What we know:
Elements: E1 4-8, H1 11-21, E2 25-29, E3 35-36, E4 44-45, E5 51-52, E6 55-56, H2 61-72, E7 77-79, H3 85-98, E8 105-107, H4 115-123, H5 130-157, H6 166-184, E9 189-198, E10 204-212, E11 215-216, H7 222-233, E12 237-249, H8 257-267, H9 272-284, E13 286-288, E14 291-293, H10 308-321, H11 356-359, H12 365-381, E15 386-397, E16 400-411, E17 439-451, H13 460-470, H14 478-487, E18 491-494, E19 497-500, H15 502-514, H16 521-536, H17 541-561, H18 563-569, E20 572-577, E21 584-590, E22 593-598, E23 607-609, E24 615-620, E25 627-633, E26 636-641, E27 650-652, E28 654-658, E29 667-672, E30 678-682, E31 691-692, E32 696-697, E33 709-714, E34 718-722, E35 729-730
Parallel strand pairs: 1-2, 1-7, 7-8
Antiparallel strand pairs: 3-6, 4-5, 9-10, 9-17, 10-11, 10-16, 12-15, 12-17, 13-14, 15-16, 18-19, 20-21, 21-22, 22-23, 24-25, 25-26, 26-27, 28-29, 29-30, 30-31, 32-33, 33-34, 34-35
Amino acid sequence: MSKSLVIVESDAKSKTINKFLGKDYNVKASVGHIKNLPKNRLGVDIENNFSPEWITIRGKGKILNMLKKAASSSDKVYIATDPDREGEAIAYHLLNEIKKFNTNIYRVLFYEITDKAVKEAIKNPGSVDQSKVEAQKARRVLDRLVGYKISPFLWKTIFRGLSAGRVQSAALRIICQREEEITSFRPEEFWSIEADFKTRRDDIFRSKLIKIDDKEVKIPDEKTARKHTEGIKNQEFFITNIKKTQVTRKPYPPYTTSTFQQDAAVRCKMSTKKIMRIAQQLYEGIDLPGGRTGLITYMRTDSTRLSSAAVGETREFIANNYGTEYVPEKPVYYKSKKNVQDAHEAIRPTSIKRTPQSVAAHLTSDQLKIYTLIWQRFIACQMRPAKLLRTIIDINGGLYHFRTTGSIIKFKGFMQVYNIAKEKDSDIHLPEGLKKQESLFLEKLDPQQHFTKPPPRYTESSLVKKLDNLGIGRPSTYAITISNLLSRKYVYKERRTLYATELGMNVNRILVSQFPDILDINFTAYMEQELDQIESGSKNHINVLKDFYQPFSQSLERALSKQEDIKQSLQEKIDEKCPECGRELIVKWGRNGKFIGCTGYPECTYTRPLEEEETKTDEVCEKCGAPMQIKVGKFGRFLACSNYPECKFTKPYSLGIPCPERNCDGEIVERKTRRGKVFYGCSSYPKCKFALWNKPVAQECPKCGYPLLELRYTKSKGSFKQCPNCKHIVKKEGKS
């Protein structure tokens, strides 16, 4: 009897599935897509109903021939690529290539890579979903039209190598809009007043001023704060009301791709790209003592649907391991958002019995973090709500009304497994036995100055949430979208925060001004709905593409007619002549940022780095004796001879701090990474590889005697100095 061929996407998945299906099946991998649009041309026949030109990806010919040969000698062929649009497109291309060699071809969907799920899918095969294929084709053509039509416009306007994208450019716009809000923000001063009150039993607790003369507190400056502080000191205080309320906190739904990326980015401190890569590994299979198996269900989903079998197993597990009081009376099911692709379940463990502890020895530390998070979130979603007792105490003294709110947990419920963010009032200790009309003594007043803050910049987590809420793109594409923004240097990341670069701001400004419809957030979300309707079969993909292309081509024509004006608007005159041809020099944009170039290009190719800072120093050139200047180049500040171009001597910019490494005579110098981030390293690199991200200061650690400290900053501590050797924190004025 001939074997049946099963085609999956990855080698890792093929090994897992092969163990489940046994010797009667031959499992091979396509290693992702086998067809794609050509790289060096548009590859879309606009005049012929936007017909895409699919070509075999370079290097995939060998794999395709291997699959054809395997198909020709097989009884049946099962195409088991991922259960989403991309997977359906791969299945469609494989079908068209293999059907000449075998006509018994079936489509199977693995929502989890476990023995039972795989065998069940093979028993119930289907066919390729043509509507899903058309939706993926439309998305691919849309992205190609935007990318391959707008990107060359950016190349000619700014510099070659830039890119635009339907979702990428919308994400960039969101980041740049936030940057503009922060830049234009003007902080306003305000004050708050808190007080420590003491009971007759000498218990002390803190309360906050919330009203003055029955009006909401507004204290604009220190003078007003002092006036009220003096007024408060002259009052007698007593409790006017005590209100106790039982609060119920329901568990969160199981993870979708979007909520998973958001939560994992915050809790595990990983990039979305890394999160999805690890989730893919857990889905495809891990070697366990009982054999290789997938630990989680498919991780690209926007549904919160759960199978009744998984829910039943979890309820039994909760009863046995936490107690029946943690099990709800009825199984808990969650409604998905509107317009979601509900083909997949939510992300969950393939078996709740595989606890993080039981598989920890077989996972990397990062895999364990991600698996633990998914396991905890899923088991928590099937537990009873948590119950908290919230107490509100109102305190009056003349015109002044203070309030204290505190919460205590009466029943942990799902919080036994899944920790939630602490509430502001959850840690406030409230004395026992407080009564209405009880007198209190003012122990301490604490007036505090504040300033209104601008909206925070996006992190990967908050950007994913924003994109998902707006309906832009698919959660499965968010990781690559953010990765593209970083690699193109439109955005850089520091302490998990995304900052728009000057290049990103310029690209966004040009795209928004020239392609307002394409870059409109609502339009981008609308196109996602159109793709969903193609998948559901309610819209024709050709009509959708036609409706998009007509206004898009008109915008492109208008932009191309203004191209030279836009290019010139980005250039800055510097009132200096070219030393080689005598024509004007200007500041231009290039792949590595701004630089100075000749207006006579390409006849004259004179360029030099943009010297944003030229400050003379006390140092003299070691070659000619002229004063040295501080200049800024591609990799940060450096010292250069002021007699340039006659003398071209340069050396790194030193902070004047000796390198702390033993037997090293180098100094600490300022450098920049290729992505533009400043760091501090030894001038003797690569011989000495000492480096710090934070700026060093020439001050000895009072604890371990290390010769330098580093300047650091956190929201909670503000600015402080810390020893990079023993981590000892040195407070202001040398206090430790």
